[in-house]
Each structure stands twice: as structure tokens, then as C-alpha cells.
């Protein structure tokens, strides 16, 4: 079970530590992006001499078009969909672009109402703020969604909320939201559900269809670079009939059926939403990553990562100076663990983990400021005042986010390093801060 490392490329390049020694780094920043599977790299290498523009001319184009279209079937298949289910796949640049596309497409009418949550990444909040009137479901003191508000707000809006948008799993607390149960309530009130699955796809099996038709997810968005393929491809899975109405988000060639001097006829989705030459190699890489995840098995992935997560949470709970965010005993959580160490700025903890332990974590607000502020108990007024000061102690946290190739030894190494950091004397901390200022 500790053997997943050999599936990955580029994770064993040593880094230099502050004491001058070298170490193979530990990467606990999989929430930001993930390294590629070896199989993904091999697939790209094989195809890179053979690609042509998709939907254009020549043998290479035909070959590329075929595998491009096949990749869309593979995506649908990965989420348990068949062609007759009426869903299509639109490739974008990343999750952010996918959510912007949906907000643009779905909120063309002035005054469209959308229900979102206070748990969202900015990518699933700001596009809706631009295009619609957004209402929010709050979180409780543990950062869990107040699901009672979902029904209450939909009911109060008396059918005027058209879309509910929700993260599949939080990139701060790792909470997995009950998307099918949410879908059922959303549909009961005549709305449609968008799921931001950026954090979920690599770590948890997802079926777009629920056990009943009213539990189906209407739209799902994610990024290839968070599922062990490189950057540059996002995926929008959408019910075809829901995105055929407006002018597309991006205008150009490939999206149109006919252009007259004074009129334009667009193709149906997904073609309508894919103007311009697509990122064929990125799509092939994504497709290979899905194959690899299927071959490892999502249940195996969950088992391995849950074991690591439980070990890390249990270890951190035993360290008195550590404050964990989110309920550590809540079962439906991914290996995304945010914390602070008493008396230490989150950026200092990040720095010390990197330079003493070769351990990469992220710190800050993880593009989810409203959620992080709630977990920290910092009001908007306080944050606004901090923003006015030049030397501001920005609120934030340290985040360790796990991936398939991480091991129990790495968790133990990390916990030992956290213990060591908690025990550092003031003089040592001051030295570390000075060291940082030199660079
Ligand atoms: N949503 C969530 C929950 C995320 O974690 C992220 C990436 N941190 C995004 C959206 C945005 O993904 P991308 O940067 O690939 O557009």
C-alpha cells in the first residue's frame, strides 16, 4: 500500500535544506497542484510527434480529432455517464475558466438568482457575483455547511433561485459535501446544481447520477492539474440542453455553424463553447490520468489517503500548541488539513517546514477568504482594518494537502518536524525570520 510513489514522475528530486544537507522533499501541497503520473508523461511523449489541430485537415488532424473525442467519452464514463444521458464535456483552461463560463452562460438574464455557500473557493464565488444576485448558505462554528439553510433559502425565494453552486470538497477543511442529497433538495425547488469538483475528483469516487433521477448533478467542473496531469485543461460536464441558448463565453472559429454579414449561427454545445484550437496534448494527458486512476481504483485511493489523513489528524491533535480547523472527527473529510501553531505566523511555519524538513505546505487563505475568516473568527471589519496597515499580520493558516504518492513515513516525518518547530526558542525563531529577510 506504500507503493504508489513509483507511479509518479519528478517527485524524487532532492532539495537543499537550511543546514546545507539535501533531502528528497515531501510534498503536502496537492491541493494546489499535483505531480504527473509516469503514465501521463509517457503518453504525452508518445503523442507529441503525432499531433495535429483537432477538427482540421490531414492525417494527424484526423488522428488527433479521434482521440480528442474519445477523451470526452472517457470523461463521461469516469463519472458513470453514457452518451444517452444527455451530458457533454467542454474543455477549458482550468476550473476557474469553467466556472466563469458557466456563470456567463447561465446568468444571461438580468437579476438571475444564485445560491452559493461561504465555503467556496473564490473561483466558485466571484464569477457568480459578477453575473448574478448571489445568496449564501452559512457555515457553522466547525466550518460545516448549514444544510438547513439550503432548503430554507430555496423555500423563501419561492422558485426564483435558478442555480445552486457548491464545492464538492473544501480546499481548506477537506469536508466532502453530500452533493446528491443537496441535488435532491435543489431540484425539489426547481433549481439546478453546479458542483465545483476541483478538490474532489482525484480523491473520491463521483457519480454524476444519483440513485434517483432527482439526485443527479447538473454541472460538474474540475482541473486536470489536480488529478496528476499537467496544467492547461479544465473540464466542464454539463447537461447539453442547459447551455445551448446564449452567445458563447469565448467567440471564434470552430464554434459557429454559419456566419453571415449580419447574423451568426452557433453550433450546439459542446462545440459552441470551444472556439479556437484546443489543447490537444493537455486533453490526452488528462485522459491518461483518468485511466491511471481507474487502474489504481478509486476505492484503493480513498483507503490509502484516509489512512494518511487519520494519522496526520491524530498526530496534530496530540500537539498542544497546534490549533486544527474543522472538526477532526468528522468522517467525510479528505486529506486537506489546516492548522496554526500558537504564537507563530503561518508563513513562518511554512518557511520552517520547508528549510528544516524539505516539507512543502501552503499558508494563507487558499483563495477562500470568507471561509478562512469564519474559521478563524475574524470579522470583515477587522480584516479591513488590517488591510489599511502597512505591516499587517494577515490572518491565515497552514495547510497540508495529501496525494496518492504520500506515505505514512512522510506523515511521521512531518509530525516530528511540527513538534520540533513548537519547541524552538525565541532566538531561533528570530534567526529564521532574519534568514528569510535576506532572500
Ligand atoms: N475550486 C477549488 C475548490 C479549488 O481548490 C481550486 C484550486 N485551488 C479551484 C477551484 C481553482 O482551480 P484552478 O486554479 O485549476 O482553476
UniProtKB/TrEMBL annotation:
Superkingdom in the source lineage: Bacteria
Aminotransferase class V domain: residues covered: 26-414
GO MF annotation list: cysteine desulfurase activity; transaminase activity
Keyword NADP: no
Cofactor: pyridoxal 5'-phosphate
Family annotation (Gene3D superfamilies): Aspartate Aminotransferase, domain 1 (3.90.1150.10), Type I PLP-dependent aspartate aminotransferase-like (Major domain) (3.40.640.10)
Catalytic reactions on record: (sulfur carrier)-H + L-cysteine = (sulfur carrier)-SH + L-alanine
Assigned keywords, A-Z: Aminotransferase, Pyridoxal phosphate, Transferase
Family annotation (PANTHER family): CYSTEINE DESULFURASE (PTHR43586), CYSTEINE DESULFURASE 1, CHLOROPLASTIC (PTHR43586:SF8)
Family label: Belongs to the class-V pyridoxal-phosphate-dependent aminotransferase family. Csd subfamily.
Name of the protein in question: Aminotransferase class V-fold PLP-dependent enzyme
Species this chain originates from: Holtiella tumoricola
Amino acid at each position: 500500500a506504500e507503493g504508489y510513489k513509483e507511479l509518479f514522475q519528478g517527485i524524487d528530486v532532492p532539495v537543499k535544506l537550511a543546514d546545507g544537507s539535501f533531502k528528497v522533499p515531501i510534498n503536502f501541497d496537492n491541493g494546489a497542484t499535483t505531480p504527473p503520473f509516469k503514465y501521463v508523461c509517457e503518453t504525452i511523449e508518445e503523442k507529441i510527434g503525432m499531433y495535429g489541430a483537432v477538427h482540421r485537415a490531414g492525417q494527424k488532424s484526423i488522428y488527433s480529432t479521434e482521440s480528442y473525442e474519445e477523451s470526452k467519452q472517457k470523461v463521461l464514463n469516469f463519472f458513470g455517464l453514457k452518451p444517452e444521458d444527455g451530458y457533454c464535456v467542454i474543455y477549458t483552461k482550468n476550473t476557474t475558466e469553467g466556472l466563469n463560463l458557466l456563470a456567463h452562460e447561465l446568468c444571461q438574464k438580468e437579476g438571475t438568482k444564485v445560491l452559493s455557500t461561504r465555503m467556496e473557493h473564490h473561483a466558485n464565488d466571484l464569477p457568480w457575483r459578477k453575473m448574478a444576485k448571489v445568496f449564501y448558505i452559512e457555515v457553522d462554528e466547525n466550518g460545516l455547511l448549514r444544510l438547513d439553510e439550503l432548503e430554507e433559502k430555496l423555500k423563501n425565494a419561492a422558485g426564483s433561485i435558478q442555480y445552486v453552486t457548491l464545492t464538492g470538497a473544501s480546499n481548506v477543511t477537506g469536508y466532502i459535501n453530500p452533493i446528491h442529497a443537496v441535488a435532491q433538495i435543489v431540484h425539489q425547488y426547481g433549481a439546478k446544481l453546479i458542483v465545483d469538483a476541483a478538490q474532489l475528483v482525484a480523491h473520491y469516487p463521483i457519480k454524476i447520477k444519483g440513485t434517483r433521477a432527482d439526485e443527479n448533478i447538473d454541472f460538474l467542473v474540475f482541473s486536470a492539474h489536480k488529478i496528476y496531469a499537467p496544467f492547461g485543461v479544465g473540464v466542464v460536464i454539463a447537461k447539453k440542453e442547459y447551455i445551448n441558448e446564449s452567445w458563447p463565453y469565448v467567440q471564434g472559429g470552430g464554434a459557429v455553424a454559419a456566419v453571415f454579414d449580419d447574423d451568426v449561427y452557433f453550433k450546439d454545445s459542446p462545440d459552441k463553447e470551444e472556439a479556437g484550437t484546443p489543447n490537444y496534448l493537455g486533453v490526452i494527458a488528462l485522459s491518461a490520468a483518468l485511466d491511471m486512476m481507474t487502474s489504481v481504483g478509486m476505492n484503493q485511493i480513498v483507503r490509502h489517503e484516509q489512512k494518511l489523513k487519520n494519522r496526520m489528524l491524530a498526530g496534530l491533535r496530540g500537539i498542544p500548541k497546534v490549533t486544527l480547523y474543522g472538526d477532526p472527527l468528522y468522517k467525510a473529510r479528505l486529506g486537506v488539513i489546516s492548522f496554526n501553531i500558537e504564537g507563530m505566523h503561518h508563513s513562518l511555519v511554512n518557511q520552517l517546514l520547508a528549510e528544516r524538513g524539505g516539507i512543502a505546505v501552503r499558508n494563507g487563505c487558499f483563495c477562500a477568504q470568507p471561509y478562512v475568516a469564519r474559521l478563524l473568527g475574524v470579522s470583515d471589519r477587522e480584516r479591513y482594518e488590517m488591510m489599511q496597515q502597512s505591516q499587517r499580520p494577515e490572518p491565515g493558516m497552514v495547510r497540508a494537502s495529501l496525494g496518492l504518492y504520500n506515505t505514512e513515513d512522510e506523515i511521521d516525518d512531518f509530525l516530528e518536524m511540527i513538534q520540533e518547530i513548537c519547541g524552538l526558542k525565541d532566538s531561533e525563531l528570530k534567526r529564521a525570520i532574519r534568514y528569510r529577510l535576506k532572500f
